[in-house]
Amino acid sequence: MATILYARVSTIDQNISHQRTQAEQAGFVLDEVIADEGVSGVTVPLAERPQGKRLFDKLRAGDTLVVRWVDRLGRNYQDVTDTIRQFMGQGVVIRTVINGMTFDGSTKDPVQQAVRDALIAFMAATAQSQAEVTKDAQRAGIAAAREKVGRYRGRKPSYDEDTLETVLDLHRAGGKLLTIAKDLGLSRSTVRHIVGDPQRAREVLARWDKGEE
């Protein structure tokens, strides 16, 4: 039985190493890491990604699939829920690093099944809604920048879109600002800025046109 981490970043200038580090710090002993770099979770289903599609051939009953959060599988509600159900149907256990969620298809108790399925739906819907909010902020920021051609955009942010969402996920999970900053290689003030005003943090990224998640 293998434990496989699937990692994804949406632009080629991002790095998947922090996702592996987070998993190992959470106590996962990984047999393999499969990663897609520079691949959108919004427009490209897992089964169509260069590395993501390998999971469908590699995973076997009894294996554990680890992801930082379900948004690494995708940011499309239908794709994420279908994927998780397919893997559970094959006897694969899906576990998240953030919040320590476990999705296991072996349970026969109807109440446990209902709770599990509701959590899957909620997390998948949250992943899609976050992507839509981010995209709206990008459009607004780009439009504003076009109206003010040549205006100083300020210092380039030290975080990218994936890092921003990681900060918010870790903070929601109860992480302390200093610990989050240390784990992600950010300053404490940057983490405080993101947590204090996520919308503004997204707009800063949008002005730099970081691209689609």
Automatic annotation (TrEMBL):
CDD domains: SR_ResInv. The keyword DNA-binding applies. SUPFAM superfamilies: Resolvase-like. It comes from the Bacteria. Residues 2-149 form the Resolvase/invertase-type recombinase catalytic domain. SMART domains: Resolvase (SM00857). The active site is at S10. One of its GO terms (biological process) is DNA integration. Keywords: DNA integration, DNA recombination, DNA-binding. GO terms for molecular function: DNA binding; DNA strand exchange activity. Belongs to the site-specific recombinase resolvase family. This is DNA-invertase from lambdoid prophage Rac. It comes from Ketogulonicigenium robustum. The lineage of its organism: Bacteria, Pseudomonadati, Pseudomonadota, Alphaproteobacteria, Rhodobacterales. The gene is pinR.
